[in-house]
Design a protein that fits this description.
The complex is a heterotrimer.
Chain A (H helix, E strand, L loop, with lengths): L15 E8 L2 E8 L4 H8 L18 E4 L2 E4 L11 E4 L11 H8 L9 H16 L18 H7 L10 H13 L2
Helix pairs in contact in A: 2-5
Chain B lengths: L4 E3 L4 H10 L3 E4 L5 H7 L6 E4 L8 E3 L5 E4 L4 H6 L1 H6 L1 H8 L4 H6 L2 H5 L51 H7 L3 E6 L2 E6 L22 E7 L8 E6 L10 E10 L2 E10 L6 E2 L1 H7 L6 H12 L11 H20 L2
Parallel strand pairs in B: 1-3, 2-3
Antiparallel strand pairs in B: 4-5, 5-8, 6-7, 6-8, 9-10, 10-11, 11-12
Chain C lengths: L17 H6 L14 E7 L5 E7 L1 H4 L4 E6 L21 E2 L5 E7 L2 H10 L1 E6 L18 E2 L3 E2 L2 E3 L2 H7 L2 E9 L11 E7 L2 E6 L4 H11 L7 E4 L15 H13 L3 E4 L15 E9 L5 E12 L11 H6 L4 E10 L13 H19 L3 H7 L17 H12 L12 E2 L2 E13 L6 E6 L5 E4 L9 H13 L6 E4 L16 H22 L10 E6 L1 H5 L7 E13 L5 E11 L6 H20 L5 E2 L4 E2 L17 E6 L23 H13 L10 H6 L5
Parallel strand pairs in C: 1-14, 12-13, 16-17, 21-22, 25-28
Antiparallel strand pairs in C: 1-5, 2-4, 2-6, 3-5, 7-8, 9-17, 10-15, 11-12, 11-14, 15-16, 18-19, 19-24, 20-21, 20-23, 24-25, 26-27
Helix pairs in contact in C: 8-15, 11-12, 14-15
Classes of the chains: A alpha+beta, B alpha+beta, C alpha+beta.
Chain lengths: ~180, ~325, ~700
């Protein structure tokens, strides 16, 4: 039993699109099925499996990456929409040494199984940028004042990233440690 | 998810023409709801018209105060906008209480207004749902319906509208700017969403192909004293089980004007006109606020599992209004 | 705390795989580069009970990129009688809604997902029953409860003792279905080559998975290799071979290409198991001083029509508190549901919720402080077996916890503390979990350069097992840790049991220590102490030693203290403080131990406040089957949380002296929270979870 069409042929038909995507500083010219999410493009086409698939519906945060510097859930982003855009994944954070958030996650045991961890770290990086721009959160008392990064602020802002092992307290500690060393 | 074609229109007119021409076409904004539903097989568009590249992504102050919010302004940008934070805290709070940081970075203003219900039966193609498949029945009516409507529902559909933003906007008398195949039109947000009635599959009053291009928030100086209270089943990242958007203008002790709207109670963001009417012109007290809520909720018809929403909405109405009253008293 | 450690054991150490996990380099089951890979997508049954009449795969096969659709009519055959739950795609029978009845294999994930939707299956359906009730006519007495406890026990005269008691508590507690929801779904990459099967699989023990696959596919064990180097959590649900690995292996054989198959999040709600819902009646009879004379715990739960799974919820009561007249019973009913399975502290977790809640009710009824009540009822010997505990430090945990928490001046009156909008209360619960061990094999190799490699098919599902065993090995070899390498997570390594039942570290460290000791003996005997050029290896099994263990009651203990705040207007519950003190033998790595305990406590809080599988009897499945509707605790829910442990030496355990800490953190936590909710509001919630609607709608119970 075989499918109705030859499989695997380069599909530059109406159901697929070509796009240029920069991932971790490396340019890629891709032809992708329009249905391909950024997450599946990263994992299945580019071999970048650091971004995880936990729910595939934007409900767990394991797939969080930075898109043009902002944290997004890559399972709900269609890759076809990203022509000319820039993505940073967990694989793109470290140089020769670990990125400060990564080092802090190891030092503070901010994970157990590790599956949500790349999403937590990418989310934390995006979140700290949001804080540095004084974006308020749901727990910010004064919407017009500069944001002070408290435990409560970190907890609220990181709640889009589930951790079933419940490393949450250590995640908060790690993020605050990394933030203070910035 | 079925295979689909993808197009980035050059302008609004092209976008509207594409939708008008193709009954299987759908607009793609942030994708946070549409892509989710496409994976579930709930929505199966054959063409996605990506409107995020259109020049609809700015927040502009109106000539006489107020704001004009582009349709594709991301939720996080809107929440962080200095004018929103200063002049419309109810709007900022509603946005910040919604979803997660990542999703707010993706979701658009218009997409948020047009998002679909999170009713469990709507999202599961193996279950009966008149909204998803007209004529199959409403499994939620006698099913697990704790999250669902207490106001305005029909035997055909008991779904709620899940947006927080829409509740704040409807309280602010926002107007939706729409481009239809026949031209531009303004639709008051309060008239955008339909009650489910016999046709829960028709969620808005917009014709096929209509594209929301902006949302206008009229000037409302007393909205600086406004708030949004959202109740949910965990401390963050959950849809509301009940919410209230409120703004209060007192003249001494007397309610000069008030805005009140409820979320997670109906098929649309629920503007509490009866409660507002009861409040206006009377000396404000917590008891009056409770009476106002009771008046609004007199029409409530709770389902088997959501009777708690009546006292809940009443209690948060009182809390929101007394909080606002306290903050403006000397 | 005890004296500072002299070796590696007892010292804080970051996880060995930490760098790999934070850089994304750690590979999970469907992340290995594989040539010519295909994608499998499981198709769930849309009927609850009945038979498949017809499978029409044509629309699915017509899609570009679809390679095949497997179902009972065409799938490779499996060996019958191995495991009814894993006898997948073999028969037309449908035993529960969501049962996997077909698998699509395609070139891409996108094609596989769409094709799975297009597989048309017609069913002949029969009436079903899926709701657990104490009135269900099908309730019966199983021959044993999990894993091999007697179903019922009786000592003394409960009825007489209860009737004569001055103070009586008689309450029924209900727990819903809980879904494990590890962050990594059940997922497998399967490859066949020359009649041999290689799977990268997300599981909690690849030795038993290897054995099960060998039986199912009628292969010698050595023809099956199962690799589980990194596992994204399991919490019991991956404690045995599950559907994903069987479906992936079937599909890979059928298309003769490697297959990646991951279950969707929605598919994790049922077919891979869940914590069985329970209905538990607890009766306590005591004198006015709170000394228990009579205790009875009757537990009801459900199983499927396929396999008997009898949740041992009342077993907790058998050894926890004193009382001369005692009775425990278990009844189950076969429903048209997926078979329940293990979830963190199966049995003890729901059982402790019931008993520790009843203890709080007894404390209130007697007017005795609930910490003091537990201390008064601490038994000198195991109340059922009459044997001395190898170590029992429940009282020490309670006292230390009370001191740390600041329990001393607590006003017991419920519903009287208010801080602005918040009603404030505090609660306590005890906890215990068996300290067991299972046989394992391990190998240790010395290299001429002075380094060592230790190998054991342990699984690190996030517990820190890899790091702990490495520390244990270094001490057993009496060398610095940097000279030791450890390998785990591959069925090619010496066989070991699952990461489950809090037995992992106890069982595995036992084998590691014996292997290292054996190697040191051999090295001492080697001529001149020199290691041969090709190294020196010792492999051992602890089977005889574990079997020879004296049958004594061995338990870890704990005490949970918490503060809750309940919003007076909305019923929303917050837990600003949760504190646990544990006595669990020696702690190998304080860093990872603390994480495990905090994780267990948080999952207990999540159980108390958030989680609930909402079943719709008309369909027979859980309608809230995703992470947006099935709420687990998020970061914002966890405020101040503390875990401490007491120094504990117990020579009757195992060479490392450990009791295991994977489960004890979740036992009793939910009761501590509901007890605190009662203290705050006066409302006693006897059906979990405590949701805001229950607090808004129910009058105080006192």
């Amino acid at each position: 039993m075989r499918g109705g069409r030859e499989s695997g042929k380069p599909a530059d038909d109406q159901w697929s699109s070509r796009l240029a995507l920069t991932v971790n500083g490396v340019g890629h010219d891709l032809t992708l099925d329009n249905r391909t999410t950024l997450l599946d493009a990263l994992r299945e086409r580019l071999g970048l499996t650091g971004s995880k698939k936990g729910c595939d519906h934007g409900q767990c945060g394991s797939c969080t990456v930075l898109l043009d510097g902002r944290r997004v859930k890559s399972c709900l982003v269609l890759a076809v929409t990203l022509d000319g855009r820039e993505v940073i994944t967990v694989e793109g954070l470290a140089g020769r040494r670990l990125y400060p958030l990564q080092a802090a996650f190891v030092a503070h045991d901010a994970f157990q199984c590790g599956y949500c961890t790349p999403g937590q770290i990418c989310s934390a990086r995006g979140m700290l940028d949001e804080v540095s721009r004084d974006w308020p959160s749901a727990v910010t008392a004064d919407l017009t004042a500069p944001v002070e990064l408290t435990d409560a602020e970190v907890r609220e802002r990181m709640s889009g990233n589930l951790c079933r092992c419940a490393a949450y307290p250590n995640i908060v500690t790690a993020i605050r440690a990394a933030a203070s060393s910035r | 998810m079925r295979a689909f074609r993808y197009h980035r229109p050059a302008d609004v007119a092209e976008a509207v023409a594409l939708l008008d021409a193709d009954p299987e076409a759908a607009y793609l904004g942030g994708g946070t709801n549409l892509v989710d539903l496409m994976k579930l097989g709930v929505q199966r568009p054959g063409l996605l018209v990506d409107v995020t590249g259109l020049p609809l992504d700015t927040v502009e102050p109106g000539p006489d105060g107020g704001l004009r919010i582009g349709a594709t302004v991301r939720n996080s940008d809107l929440a962080a906008h200095p004018l929103v934070r200063r002049d419309y805290p109810v709007l900022a709070r509603a946005l910040l209480d919604a979803a997660s940081g990542q999703l707010r970075n993706m979701a658009t203003t218009a997409g948020n207004l047009l998002q679909r219900t999170r009713c469990a039966y709507f999202q599961d193609t193996a279950k009966a749902c008149n909204k998803r498949e007209p004529g199959t029945g409403c499994a939620a009516l006698h099913g697990q319906n704790r999250e669902l409507a207490i106001l305005g529902w029909s035997e055909r559909c008991v779904a709620t509208h899940p947006s927080d933003l829409a509740v704040a906007l409807v309280a602010l008398d926002a107007v939706v700017e729409v481009r239809e195949p026949g031209g531009p039109r303004d639709v008051p947000l309060a008239e955008l969403h339909r009650t489910p009635g016999d046709h829960p599959e028709r969620e808005t009053t917009l014709p096929r192909g209509a594209l929301i291009t902006a949302v206008r928030v009229p000037p409302l100086p007393f909205a600086r004293r406004s708030t949004y209270l959202k109740v949910r089943d965990r401390a963050a990242f959950a849809f509301a089980v009940g919410s209230v958007a409120a703004a209060l203008d007192l003249d001494g002790d007397v309610v000069r004007d008030v805005r009140l709207a409820y979320g997670a109670v109906a098929h649309q963001p629920w503007r509490a006109y009866r409660a507002e009417e009861l409040l206006r012109g009377r000396p404000f007290t917590a008891e009056l606020a409770a009476q106002a809520a009771d008046a609004e909720l007199a029409a409530a018809r709770p389902l088997r599992h959501n009777g708690f929403k009546v006292p809940l909405i009443r209690n948060i109405t009182v809390r929101a209004l007394t909080g606002l009253a306290g903050s403006v008293r000397p | 705390m005890s004296a500072p450690p002299v070796g590696a054991v007892g010292r804080e150490h970051p996880r060995l795989e930490g760098r790999d996990k934070v850089t994304g380099a750690a590979r999970y089951a469907v992340e290995y580069p594989v040539e010519n890979v295909t994608y499998g997508w499981a198709v769930p049954a849309a009927a609850t009970r009945g038979r498949i009449l017809r499978v029409d795969a044509a629309p699915a096969l017509a899609l570009p990129g679809v390679l095949d659709v497997l179902h009972h009519g065409n799938a490779p055959r499996l060996t019958p009688g191995v495991d009814a739950d894993l006898f997948l795609l073999q028969e037309p029978a449908v035993h529960y809604r969501g049962q996997f009845v077909a698998v699509v294999v395609a070139e891409t994930i996108e094609a596989a997902r769409e094709a799975a939707r297009l597989v048309r299956i017609d069913y002949d359906t029969e009436p079903h029953t899926t709701v657990l009730s104490e009135h269900h006519p099908g309730l019966y007495r199983p021959n044993k409860v999990n894993p091999s406890y007697p179903t019922d026990t009786e000592d003394g005269d409960f009825d007489g003792g209860f009737a004569a008691a001055e103070v009586r508590v008689d309450a029924t507690y209900r727990t819903p279905a809980y879904h494990n929801n590890p962050m990594e779904p059940h997922a497998t990459t399967a490859r066949w080559r020359d009649g041999r099967l290689l799977v990268h699989d997300s599981n909690q023990g690849s030795t038993p998975v290897q054995a099960t696959l060998a039986e199912l596919f009628a292969l010698p064990r050595e023809a099956v290799r199962v690799v589980a180097e990194h596992v994204g959590g399991g919490f019991g649900s991956k404690g045995y071979a599950k559907a994903a690995v069987v479906l992936a292996a079937l599909a890979a054989r059928q298309v003769d290409r490697p297959v990646r198959l991951a279950l969707t999040r929605q598919q994790l709600f049922g077919p891979i198991g869940y914590r069985a819902p329970t209905i538990q009646r607890v009766r306590l009879g005591a004198d006015a001083d709170g000394r228990i004379a009579a205790v009875c715990h009757d537990a009801i739960s459900q199983t499927s029509t396929l396999t008997e799974f009898a949740e041992q919820a009342a077993v907790y009561t058998r050894s926890m508190y004193a009382g001369r007249h005692r009775r425990t019973t278990h009844r189950v009913v076969r429903l048209d549901v997926p078979t329940p399975f293990w979830m963190r502290a199966p049995g003890e977790c729901p059982g402790a919720y019931a008993l520790e809640s009843a203890m709080d009710e007894l404390a209130t009824a007697c007017g005795i402080d609930p910490v003091e009540l537990r201390i008064r009822n601490d038994p000198a010997v195991d109340p059922e077996q009459g044997l001395p505990f190898t170590s029992r430090n429940l009282v020490a945990c309670l006292r230390d916890g009370a001191r740390r928490f600041g329990w001393a001046d607590r006003d017991p009156t419920p519903g009287v503390r208010r801080d602005g909008r918040w009603l404030v209360g505090t609660g306590v619960a005890g906890a215990s979990y068996p300290a067991r061990a299972r046989a394992a094999a391990a190998a240790a190799t010395a290299a001429p350069d002075g380094t060592f490699e230790v190998r054991i098919n342990a699984t690190d599902i996030g517990t820190g097992a890899r790091t702990a065993l490495w520390q244990v090995a270094a001490d057993a070899l009496d060398v610095p840790v940097d000279r030791v390498a450890i390998r785990v997570g591959d069925s090619d390594l010496p066989a070991a049991g699952v990461a489950g039942g809090s037995m992992g570290t106890a069982s595995w460290s036992w084998a590691v220590i014996r292997a290292c000791e054996g190697l040191r003996d051999r090295l001492r005997q080697a001529p001149g102490g020199a290691v041969p050029a090709d190294g020196l290896t010792v492999e051992v099994s602890t089977a005889d030693e574990v079997r020879a263990q004296r049958p004594l009651p061995r338990y870890a203990y704990g005490a949970h203290f918490c503060e809750v705040r309940v919003d007076a207007d909305t019923g929303e519950v917050r837990v600003p403080r949760l504190l646990g003190v544990f006595a669990a033998g020696r702690v190998v790595n304080p860093t990872t131990a603390r994480s495990q305990l905090i994780g267990g406590m948080t999952m207990g809080m999540s159980m108390a406040l958030h989680e609930e599988g909402l079943l719709d009897e008309r369909y027979g499945d859980w309608v809230n089957h995703d992470l947006a509707m099935y709420h687990v605790s998020v970061c914002a829910d966890v405020e101040r949380i503390e875990a401490y442990w007491l120094p504990e030496e117990d020579p009757e355990l195992n060479p490392a002296g450990v009791k295991g800490i994977g489960e004890i953190g979740i036992v009793g936590t939910a009761a501590a929270i509901t007890n605190a909710v009662h203290h705050a509001t006066g409302v006693r919630v006897r059906d979990l979870p405590v949701r805001l609607d229950k607090l808004l709608e129910r009058p105080p119970t006192r």
